[in-house]
TrEMBL record:
This is DUF418 domain-containing protein. It comes from the Bacteria. It comes from Ornithinibacillus sp. 4-3. InterPro entries: Bact_Transport_Assoc, DUF418. The keyword Transmembrane applies.
Length: 395
């Protein structure tokens, strides 16, 4: 995530507003998508959702499936891919192609390490390992022109469109249920789950890449980065509008069948899985749609008030606050600590997720006001470049 902080000072303000707003918003989506995973005392709903018991619960589940689920991850992937291009371009100019790739690979390895610690030690939901692996796999594409990148995007999406619906169809057919089996029992303690968490470290990113692929979205981010479309959006306003409308429209259309299941539509388990696979695939469009929308907002927002400054400040420190969010969710909701997941409803869990994000929003604003870097961003830069970094949070 801190990859996106690698722009030159000359483009910093314009870049930070669009990219950092997108990253700050992304953190809210991630929190909201991870909180329901700990509601283990409620009957399973459809896939990752638990069953709602009130009208408000059902409405919030509806919004989550439309806006959040399988939409936060592709946005993260697009921004990650865009950041890789920024780093590569800057380091290539300074040190050449070979060194630029070496720096990116080192960054990706450290992301994998950070993710392993988060999942194995803290018990949080990891996405850092997944994106670190994606970066290692795609670093060679950073030299390619956009014609080839677009071909890679199309090919990767077609591959996912062929196997993902049938894969999820098979999962639900095997489960004979619309929901997934609950992995939390309520008997967990920190120490009796350590071994399971450590064993799961290599499995988590493999599972994510197969069942929730991010490669197409990272490639889309590389394509956008080659266009420089979010740092210098003015020449691309028409394209940004088209991507916003098309991306979010496809995302909405891909989500509608899923929200109908188990309330208005009761298909076979296999068909329900196919529908969820379509939900996953159309999430790629949501990622590019959200990213393009924030590119437009970077142009349209002329005056930065408290809210805009706070979200941007959060986005600048997205690695730090992603980890804080995940640890907070584990401490508050999981059985190893306060165990609120046993008593929360869909509605109250969403409120908890928003509260976590709002608290860190104020914290990020305070850090920005006092020119404090995110500690994990600062440590990541130290590890990669092996020298102390400035305390300026925007570098």
């Amino acid at each position: 995530m801190s990859e996106l902080n690698a722009a030159t000072r000359g483009t910093q303000k314009k870049r930070a507003l669009s990219l950092d707003l997108a990253r700050g918003f992304m953190l809210l989506l991630i929190v909201l998508s991870h909180v329901p995973l700990f509601l283990y005392m409620i009957e399973p709903g459809v896939l990752t959702k638990v069953a709602g018991s009130t009208t408000l619960d059902h409405f919030l589940n509806f919004l989550m499936e439309i806006i959040v689920d399988n939409r936060a991850r592709p946005l993260f992937a697009v921004l990650f891919g865009y950041g890789l291009v920024m780093i590569y371009r800057k380091q290539q100019e300074r040190k050449g192609d070979k060194e630029a790739k070496r720096i990116i690979k080192r960054r990706c390895w450290y992301l994998i390490l950070f993710g392993a610690v988060l999942a194995g030690v803290a018990g949080g939901q990891d996405i850092l390992m997944t994106y670190g692996i994606a970066g290692l796999l795609l670093v060679s594409t950073l030299k390619k022109d956009n014609t080839k990148i677009k071909k890679y995007v199309i090919i990767s999406i077609l591959i996912c469109a062929i196997y993902i619906p049938f894969l999820w169809g098979g999962v639900l057919f095997e489960n004979q249920s619309y929901g997934l089996l609950e992995s939390v029992t309520g008997q967990e303690t920190y120490f009796n789950t350590v071994l399971d968490r450590l064993i799961s470290i290599p499995i988590i990113p493999l599972f994510t890449h197969v069942f929730f692929p991010v490669i197409p979205s990272v490639l889309i981010g590389i394509w956008l980065g080659n266009l420089n479309i979010l740092i210098k959006p003015q020449p691309h306003l028409k394209l940004l509008k088209q991507l916003t409308i098309a991306g979010l429209s496809i995302s909405l259309l891909g989500a509608i069948p899923l929200v109908l299941i188990n309330d208005f539509w009761f298909p076979s388990f296999f068909i329900a899985g196919v529908v969820y696979g379509i939900h996953v695939i159309t999430g790629f469009a949501a990622g590019i749609g959200y990213a393009a929308l924030f590119g437009l907002l970077g142009v349209w927002i002329k005056k930065q008030g408290f809210i805009v400054k706070s979200i941007a400040a959060l986005g600048k420190r997205s690695l730090t606050f992603f980890v804080i969010h995940e640890v907070s969710i584990v401490i508050l909701l999981s059985p190893i600590a306060f165990n609120l997941g046993a008593v929360l409803t869909v509605t109250t869990s969403v409120l908890i997720g928003i509260l976590i994000w709002v608290v860190t929003l104020f914290t990020a604003y305070f850090m920005e006001h006092h020119q404090m870097s995110g500690p994990l961003e600062k440590y990541m830069r130290y590890l990669i470049y092996r020298h102390p970094t400035s305390n300026n949070a925007s570098t």
